Amino acid sequence: MRRLSSAVFRVAAAFLVATITVCGAASISQAQDKVRIAFLVKNLGNRFFDAVRDGGTEAAKELGNVEIIYVGPTSATAEGQIEIINSLMAQRVNAIAISANDTNALIPATKRAMDRGIKVVSFDSAIASEGRIIQVDPSETKLIGAKQVQMMADAMGGEGEFAILSAASTMTNQNNWIAAMKEELKDPKYAKMKLVTTAYGDDQSDKSYRETLGLFKSYPNLKGIISPTSIGIVAAAKAVTDQNLVGKVYVTGLGLPSEMKAAVEAGATKSFAIWNPIDLGYTTTQIAYNLIKGTVKGVPGDEVPAGRMGKVKVGPDGVVVMAEPFTFDKSNVAEYAKVF
Ligand code: RAM
Predict the structure, then answer these.
(1) Which residue of 14, 29, 110, 172 is most buried, as measured by CB atoms within 10 A?
(2) What's the CATH superfamily of 16-137+276-322?
(3) pTM, 2 dp
């Protein structure tokens, strides 16, 4: 009983801090028609997802009478997300947009939600196709993988040892991007670069920092780290700076300009990449809304009206692919740091 009530309290507390009502004072009938879209993110306290939420809020305002519920576990685990899915079902939300901490573990919970008429989409980090209707990929997986290897090659002069510092080993997006990096590395132009290991910081700053220190210890000749996560890349660059390794070890990967400005200015990072997380949240909200309203079913070939993003096309396996990632370096990081 004590365990149950503390679990309920934790979930309730998460909702308290995270619920945002986008519609203003609504009449009773408006309140009944209100569409409620929950963003279930990997973890709270991650500014990448805060920017996704801001895009969701923007779309909700445009669509009118839409409520965005922003929620996630404190640490990025599947168990935490399952607990929240159950709670969202009890609240009878209309849609859940999930960035999954695990490709398969959420499927039974999301299937139950879909059986009850809740539209489940995943974005950023996918749920396997049987557990969602649509997956919104921020960009082509192959491109994201290749881009990071290219930036690493450029920073470390095309030769030497480098490591990957990922998020959690169960996360779909990081695993797909790492697979794409390994494909890119097969190109003979990278023959002098050696991937020594992949470490996991679980999208926690402190663990990512400690894992980076561990890499320095285990691989004294390390020249680079690719971190395909906005949490990991900041921690890795900080470890490089703190250990006076600027100019010896280069960090690249995926990060937010607002969080990476210091690393670029310190010289720990030459360049890094990311897409626009605001657009990702905006588009995902538009898609969820159209599924709820029944304007589309979300099957391959569908074209979903998505406000300022135009029409987005649903591809094979229910996957929507957005734009190319942007690259940031000394020339533009300060400017974009003001945006996300
Ligand atoms: C972290 C998360 C997210 C990923 C970004 C780049 O915030 O792991 O899923 O897309 O990094």
Answers:
(1) 110
(2) Response regulator (3.40.50.2300)
(3) 0.92
